[in-house]
Specification:
Mean pLDDT: 84
Order of helices and strands: HEEEEEEEE
CATH class: Mainly Beta
Low-confidence stretches: none
Keywords: DNA-binding
Number of helices: 1
CATH architecture: Sandwich
GO molecular function: DNA binding
Organism: Actinomadura darangshiensis
Protein name: AraC family transcriptional regulator
Strand order of the largest sheet: 4-3-6-1-7-8
Structural class: mainly beta
Radius of gyration: 13 Å
């Protein structure tokens, strides 16, 4: 079994939720208590992913990130942008 197949199997990646974002800055969303595995793909522009880790990660157009952060994460146009809303359990909440 290759590494990606093993990761998907261990994350129990059987059901999928797809969310497409087309936003203009400033924008940020917080994902609280997310699934065991999230795949983020940047099709154009750029985005930043912030975990509990102090160093955010920049995604450029064409980049793909596999996120296995059980505590959640934030994706934004800039690391300093405050989230406009939170996604929890597939629902959107205002801060």
């Amino acid at each position: 079994m290759d590494v990606l197949t093993d990761l998907l199997h261990r994350a129990r990646a059987q059901n999928a939720l797809v969310r497409q974002l087309i936003r203009r800055p400033p924008w940020a969303m917080e994902y609280a208590g997310g699934p065991p595995l999230t795949v983020a793909a940047t099709l154009g522009g750029h985005a930043w992913i912030r975990l509990d880790d102090p160093a955010p990660v920049r995604l450029a157009a064409g980049d793909i990130a596999l996120i296995t952060a059980p505590g959640g994460y934030t994706i934004a146009d800039d690391p300093a942008t405050t989230p406009q809303y939170m996604i929890r359990g597939g629902r959107k909440y205002l801060p």
